[in-house]
Amino acid sequence: MSDGPVVSGQLKKFVFRGKSLNNGDTRGDYLEIVIPELLSAGYSFYTWPSAPLLAWYLWSQRKNLRGLRILELGCGTGLPGILAAKCGAHVTLTDSVALPRSLHHLSGCCEANGLIPGRDVQILGLAWGLFLADVHNLRPVDLILASDCFYEPSQFEEVLSTVAFLLDGTDSRFLCAYQERSTDWSIEALLQKWGLKGALLDLDSLSESSGIDYRALVGDRSLHLLEIVAV
């Protein structure tokens, strides 16, 4: 996987509003995030379908995010992590250390939303499955995020081994939005191998708490929210 060619892009806007009150007044519960996207470039230069779903779930939990230590893995344009930072969390955004242009683009996504890398958010290149000093320094963490990190089956164990290391001995959790692309793909055996357990979250509750129909976000895609914790 490469960073992709340098191409012109566009701004994509994501608007998050609070659940409407009886009089329709949602003032004070509004957040707008703009993401510069390069649609002809590599994986990490545009917002994958699972990221808005994860971001909306976080928005529904926004009152609980302030002060949390949050880490996003393979974040690409960083929509969920940027939202968490705007809601008061201490956020570290990470993507592959082998994709320096992607990390630079991620910095631009943060800056487009008034977040200064190194001050308001931290940005770090990681190599999944390699427990180097940078990974050790990420602990402790309260919540780990990822969207569409289960895309390449050859990398499933690298992702989960990293998550297992970060969750070990804690009551923290890994919240992952993903698109089901093949019924033949499963992480059950890897969860057991790495001392983890997972459960799908009820998307109907997202609609109730956020006031948005999650089906409008999902469309005809098989998108899911998975919560993983250490056994």
Could you outline the blueprint of secondary structure elements for this entry?
Layout: E1 10-17, E2 30-37, H1 50-60, E3 69-72, H2 79-86, E4 90-96, H3 100-111, E5 121-126, H4 133-136, E6 143-147, H5 156-167, E7 173-179, H6 188-193, E8 196-200, H7 203-210, H8 214-218, E9 223-230
Parallel strand pairs: 3-4, 3-6, 4-5, 6-7
Antiparallel strand pairs: 1-2, 7-9, 8-9
Helix pairs in contact: 1-2
* Lateral arrangement of strands in the main beta sheet: 5-4-3-6-7-9-8
Give the structural class. Answer: alpha/beta
Structurally, the number of domains stands at 1
Oligomer: single chain
What is the helix/strand order? EEHEHEHEHEHEHEHHE
Radius of gyration, taken over Cα atoms and rounded to an integer in Å: 17 Å
The CATH superfamily appears as Vaccinia Virus protein VP39
Q: Give the N-to-C terminal Cα separation.
A: 33 Å
Mean pLDDT over all positions: 88
What is the global morphology?
Answer: globular
- Work out the number of β strands: 9
CATH architecture designation: 3-Layer(aba) Sandwich
Q: What's the main sheet like? A: 7 strands, mixed
What fold name stands as the CATH topology? Rossmann fold
Number of helices, where a helix is a run of at least 4 consecutive DSSP H or I residues:
8
CATH class: Alpha Beta
Low-confidence stretches: none
Approximately how much beta-strand content do the residues carry? Answer: 25-35%
The level of helicity is 25-40%
